[in-house]
Amino acid sequence: MRLRIKSFCSRLCRLPAGKLAPVLLAALLLTGCGGSGGDSLRIGFALYTQDDTFISTVAQNLEWMVREAERETGKTITLFIADGRSSQATQLDQVDRFLARGCDVLLVNIVDRTAAAVLADKAEAEGVPLIFFNRQPVREDIQRWDRIYYVGASAQESGALQGRLVLDAWREDREALDRNGDGVLQYVMLEGEPGHQDSLLRTEYSVKALTDAGVEVEKLGNETANWNRAQASARTAQWLGEFGDRIEVIFANNDDMALGAIDALGDTPRSRWPLIVGVDATAPAQEAVEAGQLYGTVHNDGRGQARAMLDMALALCAEEDPAEAVDLVDGHYVWLPYRQVTRENLAELQREQEETGPA
Q1: In terms of CATH, what superfamily is 155-299?
Q2: Domain spanning 5-153+301-337 has what CATH number?
Q3: Where are the beta strands (DSSP E) in 153-296?
């Protein structure tokens, strides 16, 4: 059969957030999402926001893998992508449209994890498998039905690895990092969304990695920046005005916020920059690591998440056991490992990414 894919990602990803929903709606009304046969698969892919650099990377990887899967399996795979624009009400409407048009499986990067039960009940009522990813619902919601799953990585692990990046720098050249020579590491913390498990755990365990190793720390400030580069830049500018050179480390719960901190430092002489660490290892963050602006980051395997979701979707829609396609933990979870990234091993990561698909 002639292989083809109906995916709107290449067009939607370039549109401003306000333009995305109308285009997606038109696509769904024209094409629909139902009537899949044995040689076709229709996937509803709901993102909390396309503006998040890491989430956009997951979407790009999934689209690329769908094309590869079409060539390998002979199936026609239609991938519908919806941008929730950080609105749970918008995302619920998008999921309703996916279900009304008969999508075979749902992949959901949920806006508000407290709404997971609503989505789970909608999927179960229609008999459509539901795979949450990257933003983890509570265990009770994942276990509401045996065809609900989660694909992601341990936020606790990412925080601990981020903290160890700073610990390594402290041990390697304590004098350079402890600029005021008081034996205490002064830091500020750029946090993601209030109440988000990744924000809470990365914040806690990044600092815990230092204190557990006997490093005395002092928090000068912490602010929510909602994973957003511009907000992080504004928060950092305020801290620089308030604390100046007292800031020795800037922790950021993700790379976009770490890049915002770098933006705020602007033309400040590099010798006066605090050490900055992030999480995700996005392409822009890798460039900052290479340039020596970002000391290090923690690689969040967006490619691995996309791979696991697609493998599960193919298995589920073939009525096969997903545990044969991925490494399922407790029947519901797929956990991807994190890894530290610095200038020393950046080239290795980039080679791997070039060999296996888009960044």
Answers
A1: Response regulator (3.40.50.2300)
A2: 3.40.50.2300
A3: 185-191, 217-224, 249-252, 275-277
Same CATH fold assignment for domains 5-153+301-337 and 155-299: yes
Residues 6+ apart with CB under 8 A from 304: 336
Q: Which distant-in-sequence residues (6+ apart) come within 8 Å of 64 by Cβ?
A: 357, 358
| The pairing of beta strand 185-191 with beta strand 105-108 | unpaired
Residue 39: the pLDDT is 83
CB 12 within 8 A of CB 56: no
pLDDT, residue 301, reads 97
pLDDT > 60? residue 63 = yes
DSSP 180: T
Decide: 178 and 184 in contact? Cβ < 8 Å.
yes
Grouping H, G, I as helix, E, B as strand and the rest as coil, residue 49 is coil
Question: Domain coordinates of the chain in residue numbers?
Answer: 5-153+301-337, 155-299
Residue 15 has pLDDT above 70, yes or no: no
Contacts 24+ apart (CB under 8 A), 297-300: 297/162, 297/255, 297/258, 297/340, 297/341, 298/158, 298/161, 298/162, 298/165, 298/338, 298/339, 298/340, 298/341, 299/338, 299/339, 299/340, 299/341, 299/349, 300/54, 300/153, 300/158, 300/336, 300/338
pTM for this entry: 0.87
Pick 28 or 344 by higher pLDDT. Answer: 344
Enter the tokens of residue 203: 């914040």
Residue 15 region, left (φ>0) first, then alpha (ψ -120 to 50), else beta? beta
What span, in angstroms and rounded, lies between the C-alpha atoms of 95 and 90?
9
Residue 157: CB atoms within 10 A of its CB come to: 18
The count of other CB atoms within 10 Å of the CB of residue 25 is 14
Using an 8 Å Cβ cutoff, are 338 and 154 in contact? Answer: yes
Q: What is the mean pLDDT of residues 117-132?
A: 97
Residue with tokens 């990046």: 165
